[in-house]
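Incident review: delayed structure delivery

Summary: a single-chain prediction request sat in the queue longer than the usual turnaround. Root cause was a stuck worker, restarted by the on-call engineer. No data loss occurred. The affected request and its eventual output are reproduced below so the record is complete for anyone auditing the incident later.

Affected input:
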Amino acid sequence: MTNLPRPGAANLKIRVALLVALTGATGMLASTAYTRDASRVVGYACPSGERFTVEYLRDHIRLRTGAGVFALAVQPAASGEKYSDGHMVFHLEGAEAQLERPGWTTSVDCRAQNQRL
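Output delivered after worker restart:
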């Protein structure tokens, strides 16, 4: 008795190959959907003992503190760099950073501790 191909076997192989290709393409799309613009991440430490992290993006920063993560937009500054969300203000001038938040003591003389690209 000879083994004859079953009807539809070639069609099934094509469907499986197509499914595998689509699954791979979907995975590639999903991985690129979450890419961000190049950024640098800097950790800051203040004399008060407070620590926070700033991720510098193209037109804003992502500020991470013990209270959460906040997006602050670029603001006009007389000198240095200034970012705010209308409540918090992060100001960087040279090597010194300052963080102002409603209801908190202003963190001054904060210095960069590390940087990651």
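Verification: Residues 25-35 have pLDDT under 50 and may be disordered.
Action items: add queue-age alerting; document worker restart procedure.
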